[in-house]
Amino acid sequence: MLKRSPIFFGVAVALAAAALQLAFRNDIPLAYGICTVCHARDLFSWIVNHLAKFQMDSPGFASQALVLTPVGLVAGSFVASKSNAEFKLSHQSNPLLMFLCGALVSIFGLVIMSCPTRIILRTAFGDTLGFLAAAGLFAGIALAVFVMKRRT
Amino acid sequence: MAVIISLAFLAVGFLAGFLGQNSRMCFVGGFRDFLLVRDTALLEGLMAFFATTWLVVLVFRLTGVIAPHYPALTDAALSAFGVASVVGGLLIGFVSTLSGGCPLRHHVLLGQGRLDSGTYFLGFYAGIFIYFRLVVFLLKGLF
Fold this sequence. Notes:
The structure holds 2 protein chains of 2 kinds. By secondary structure, chain A is mostly helical. Chain A is 65% helix and 0% strand. Chain A contains 6 helices and no strands. In chain A, α5 (116-124) packs across α6. The longest helix of chain B has 24 residues, at 115-138. Chain B is mostly helical. Chain B has helices at residues 2-23, 29-37, 41-63, 73-78, 80-99, 103-111, 115-138. The two termini of chain B are 33 Å apart.
């Protein structure tokens, strides 16, 4: 089935992100169509800046617009899993370890201003820093696989 | 205008979440599966994403709508931010692989009811807060 294909995901999401980039090219930074770390940061800083008077950095447009990509991702997945009858409350890994992993990924992600998705997006935009980050990303994955193989 | 931008981001997120749940797409999972079990399904998705964006950006450049301008690779690699990009990318890849997927994959897992991905996001947003309260000051002057 087409919607089950990762290739279809790649093409469709890349086109959607590019369409968004094109439509709002004067407002949003380059290669910003889809990102989890940056958009979570924008959403979080919008809420923090409006509730508390503690300012957090984010691109200029995000002080007005609420960046709802994280909400859309969870909602889209929820709808899809309900329609596929795959929705199931479950629990597999150590929660403390997952908390730590989440914190580390968002901190490192904010330092280089990319999640893995945006690293690929930036590399495709021709961003040399994105290319360096992609090289690091693949090295990191290889290192983790090496560690996982050694432990089992 | 702000409302239109918000809705556009919501729509892209919804599409990515919907297709991501169906295809189990993960941006670190492609290379991981290839190294572990020589399964290329997710890697093909990653390549399709890269190739499509690359082609669209080529059209953007040729028509002049968006003309991204970036430093040369040697300049980027020798800058402090270039070194940080490699190290940061490496750590993201390492931690993401151990946690079972990239942040996008964890959004999808949370949507289909995985509660440990929920704790992942408690940590994720705590990390954003820690970054702005602490890390940003430690890095000041470095870049």
